[in-house]
Amino acid sequence: xxxxxxxxxxxxRLSPSDLKTLETIKAKLKASNPNKDxxxxxxxxxxxxxxxxxxxxxxxxxxxKDLVLNQAKSLTSMLVSVGAEVFLTRGNDTFVELSQRAxxxxxxxxxxxISLHANRSQTRSDDSLGFESYVHDSLSKTGKTYKIGxxxxxxxxxxxxxxxIKDRGLKQANFAVxxxxxxxxxxxxxxxxxxxKDTNAMTLDEFRTAYCTGILRGIKExxx
Length: 224
Ligand SMILES: [Zn+2]
What we know:
Elements: H1 8-13, H2 16-32, E1 43-48, H3 64-81, E2 85-88, H4 98-107, E3 112-119, E4 131-136, H5 144-160, E5 167-173, H6 176-180, E6 185-192, H7 196-202, H8 205-223
Parallel strand pairs: 1-2, 1-3, 3-6, 4-5
Antiparallel strand pairs: 4-6
Bound molecules: zinc ion (ZN).
């Protein structure tokens, strides 16, 4: 059986035993993933930062553009498995302008925009480390987007704390993707690629899973 939904006419042609089999399969599928409709109807745009000619931050081990693309892919499958509709501003190693990313999300009429980045310290002597998130700097701390940002930020840090990642908090900035998107938008900087300690954690598959699980949990909490 290749599909689980049938038209009226098709259903009439199915024998009682076929119908019974169909119901059994549907019940089993639901039992195997009881959360499959949890975020049904939610449209999320996932924005993997940088890409193509723009590597973002980098070190000898990894480039930001690759790290965040992997995160974007993992997060996509997690969100899709709970019923969300997901659109990626880039699904491969291509360069996309910042305004293009925001425009894409606006055209899709998304409910939520999540931009994934990794950080770098500005000066050689600066040995910053840790996880930080951003919402646009014009937003009130009592507003919807700030609350969503806070829920996602806290849930993510809870998940990545065991990897030794420090919490730098939820901040506000005038980043183009946050300014130009019309829906709640949050930008996450998972850690510093200029820090060996953060890099060692961030490049683990287990970290990526924990990080994306945190984002998913934050979305669920924010929408509750
Ligand atoms: Zn970046």
